[in-house]
Amino acid sequence: MLARTRPSKTCLSRCLSALTTTVTTPQKVSYITLNNPAKRNALSLDMLNSIISDIESVSEQARCIVLRSTGTVFSSGHDLKEVAAASQQVHYTIFNRCNDLMLMIANSSAPVIASVDGFATAAGCQLVAACHMAVCSHGSKFATPGVNIGLFCSTPGVQLGRAVNRKLAMDMLLTGEPISSEAALRGGLVSRVYSSEELEAETARIASVIATKSNTVLKLGIKNFNSQIKKSLVDAAEQSSQVMVRNLGLEDGKEGLSAFLEKRHPTWQQDK
Amino acid sequence: MLARTRPSKTCLSRCLSALTTTVTTPQKVSYITLNNPAKRNALSLDMLNSIISDIESVSEQARCIVLRSTGTVFSSGHDLKEVAAASQQVHYTIFNRCNDLMLMIANSSAPVIASVDGFATAAGCQLVAACHMAVCSHGSKFATPGVNIGLFCSTPGVQLGRAVNRKLAMDMLLTGEPISSEAALRGGLVSRVYSSEELEAETARIASVIATKSNTVLKLGIKNFNSQIKKSLVDAAEQSSQVMVRNLGLEDGKEGLSAFLEKRHPTWQQDK
Amino acid sequence: MLARTRPSKTCLSRCLSALTTTVTTPQKVSYITLNNPAKRNALSLDMLNSIISDIESVSEQARCIVLRSTGTVFSSGHDLKEVAAASQQVHYTIFNRCNDLMLMIANSSAPVIASVDGFATAAGCQLVAACHMAVCSHGSKFATPGVNIGLFCSTPGVQLGRAVNRKLAMDMLLTGEPISSEAALRGGLVSRVYSSEELEAETARIASVIATKSNTVLKLGIKNFNSQIKKSLVDAAEQSSQVMVRNLGLEDGKEGLSAFLEKRHPTWQQDK
Fold this sequence. Notes:
The structure is a homotrimer. Chain A is of the alpha/beta class. Chain A folds into two domains: 6-211, 2-enoyl-CoA Hydratase, Chain A, domain 1, CATH 3.90.226; 215-271, Lyase 2-enoyl-coa Hydratase, Chain  A, domain 2 (Orthogonal Bundle), CATH 1.10.12. Helix content of chain A is 50%, strand content 16%. In chain A, strand 2 and strand 3 form a beta hairpin. Chain A is globular and about 60 Å long.
């Protein structure tokens, strides 16, 4: 099903290119795979740059982006060896670059799905929380254990605190203990849980479902959702009504409605 | 138990009167029933006007309002035939009128409960999310599938995004796939799930429980809740303390407290 | 395991000292026990003052604070006899003092865990919702039943509405009906549920886990979490990045990182 497997073209160096791989299906689902299992897919500065570079390289064309990992750890968060050796200036660079990635995902016009099969901890858990959607296998676990080593997961808490209820976020941040996939589902960190065997196929199915939608419409919808959710109910409702009217005026809006009434499949602009 | 069944008195026309029926029990629970199963209880402009008119007609007297439907679809959302045939001007009218309904529910002094037995999709799901409370049967499903036809559920997302956790809202909005009653309960779209057989009786029981409260006190409480939840913790706490003191000064506040201490049932002003 | 059991030293009077007891373990976990089961651990003004006084007395030294109760009722909320007999001026005093307690918990530099084995209602439920973490036994129940006696739980709604999803909060506030521990877990009011037999040991274990962390780091992390969660995503991310860098510059941040890389247990400043 996957059309081609290659190291990311846009990687800055041969070194970087090994950290992630990008595969884009004919349906334009781009799989970005964290591929440094020996280092537990740690978010070193190189890894952050590699993911950012990959997203940049596919974001124009992709209809859906999937973040996944090889090995048993989705990502263990920042590379602590790198952090320990770095100057304060580099610390700023690392955390700012990590924020760049999180905000790039939030603002991506192609929906980004985290598909987790294993452990996602610290900034790795932050990455899951930052995605538009997240699914995982039953055995997956999530933790923000920075507090165990005297480094409170303050940046992961930004995304975690907006994804799950307050008591669960504080439990994770204060105790550092992992939660199960069931607790992650209950708390809202993921919206679907599958067996480890089903995860890949189900992730592909969901991504495929999203890839059949009009990208123009998805883009409009995601942008408005992120904008209206911060506003008062009255302002959010008014703004979103205007977006609905604008949506209906789009070529894909007209086509979708016609196709529905004519009981046929729509043909989006992107497919012409 | 239901005192009378009639088409809504305040309907604008004979045509409208068929779309919804309103029944008010002696206990002043008003059941507004969407009654156009042949059109899947679509929220056409006429249907929106009929519900709005019904709420207006009962809101002064009702102690609790229940929204429910006949047929297997609670509501399928906007009437897409109507939308397709309409001018941009009418599109504005449709979405604004829909917003009027949602805000009317949010600001209703009588609590509004959605009782869902079947499918609630798009603006139908929005309607459920907009109610103060929502209960459903086990087989009920909820979806925001507008994205499937090139019309992102941007207005439903306003209420959905405030009712459930972010990951679930995005899953529903991006994939268009339905969620089960169990997922709706877990995510916070409904607070109780019953068997299809029990739903009517349990809805009646809950509405009856609410109808035995002081309407004056409910009104004060709902208004303060909606106001304080937007504020900072300190401001919310201060404002709500003042409301507690004001509540204690109400006739019904004094009566309720006395009745409690005297181990008798309170008699509210509304029942005198 | 508990080092000493004594009435709180800082209590204002002999009368107050009976309402709560404070025990601090050698590990500096402070257990504040509401100890007026005959009055269902009602939050009378004396009880509020006693808890506040206890928190004040331990907050400098404690690494974790546990709130728990004797008897089958964690707390039934305000003392309604006291409320009924009080002037409006005293009503203000009661609700303001209750707010003081809630804000004191929110701002406590030592994490506060509610450990509930039984009923927590009205301001008792508010107290649970106000804590950083909450755990309970399977048989525990939570309710905001003020509406039953004509006194809407407006102040409890401040904390409840920030802890659980909107539909559950409104269900509890409007119907006054209790929810089970399972519903509390699902809705986010507690993050862990244990059997009644396990609750004490598990609470002690969690508190002990938190007590082994660096208090300086916990303090920094909690303060930033509370601050960032109110801000826009961009501002929250930027502020939290700066806190991460500051955290790395702390003695305990350096020690934790070194210990991790050297595969040894860290020794925090507080333990030297």
